[in-house]
Amino acid sequence: MRFNEELAHIATYQAGKPIEEIVRTFGLDEKDVIKLASNENPYGASPSVVECIRHNAHKVSLYPDDSMHALISRLQQHYGIEYGQCIVGSGSDQIIELCMHAKATKSSKILMAGITFAMYEIYAKHIGAQVIRTPSKEHNLAEFYELFTQHKPDIVFFCVPNNPLGECVDAKELYRLLAHIEQESSGETLVVIDGAYQEFASYKDSSKHIDPRDLINRFANAIYLGTFSKVYGLGGMRVGYGIAQENIIQALYKLRAPFNITTLSLAAACVALEDQEFVRATLEKNFTQMLRYEEFAESRGISYIPSYTNFITLVLENPYDSSVICDTLLRQGIIIRNLASYGINAFRITIGTQEQNTRVLLALTESMR
Description:
Blueprint: H1 19-26, E1 34-35, H2 47-55, H3 69-79, E2 86-89, H4 91-103, E3 109-112, H5 118-127, E4 130-133, H6 141-151, E5 155-159, H7 171-184, E6 190-194, H8 198-204, H9 212-218, E7 222-227, E8 240-244, H10 246-253, H11 263-274, H12 276-299, E9 303-305, E10 311-315, H13 322-330, E11 334-335, E12 337-338, E13 346-350, H14 354-367
Parallel strand pairs: 1-11, 3-4, 3-5, 5-6, 6-7
Antiparallel strand pairs: 2-8, 7-8, 9-10, 10-13, 12-13
Helix pairs in contact: 2-11, 3-11, 4-5, 6-7
């Protein structure tokens, strides 16, 4: 059977290995497996969210409110935006896909960092668009401007902070570049600010903070993406959102499938947004525990990328091999993310609980003797 020719140029996205697969492969007990590969919240979700899901379980046979009024109203209040400036998706990934289909064509060019979230490129290739990457692996704004001037892309992606590396540009510096992009494209280049980890960056350093309302009021060609999968602990519920001026949101709605968020997911997200104390506690514990990985790396002369997220990336040199280390830990029931597929000898570790991190650091110490 013949398929769309563009599929031949697309590599299948490799998600972090699930716990169930490791249990089957290595004969481990599920309770002995630690998954720190997908940047999930190791503390789970707010207890109020768990209770909400239990209370609404009888509604699983019903389609959700397709207007998503309750969640959009809460996001409107949380960010101080207009009701029509928000769209909800099945994870922020779906909003990325909608942006691509709304703006890009086969003749389009899509600009992004040298190493960044893989789905930007995958969705671009769905369209047959040309992907332009900066020479630097991390976000180098001077390179972004040079390539923008040269190629005049239809979409520019900024992952702020960046996944899978963890670095984060300053908001003021980013805004200066966005002003150039808006002016020189006459507002025709769509700028996507992926803020999946913004809560972490804003907590650690206020200079990294991006206010979605301020962003879209300054730049009518920008859309901000957020998610409930990270700091809110709802990775399994798949809820993301986009915030932009109404003309952008209206265009995306034309592409959105009906009932794209489940009834329970909507209810859980509404409650999660209200429990900001859970969010604050998660952020505090995250960066306290991250210090342990930084100290581990520094004590052994291992490079790491200063992180503004809920993960840390360690960059290795000979004789260490990220593939060997990740496989060694995997056989012990510790799942971390090997970044060899990005062309770098590095691995990414989600910051776990104190107990999880103790076990991981002991395993790393043994494997890197």
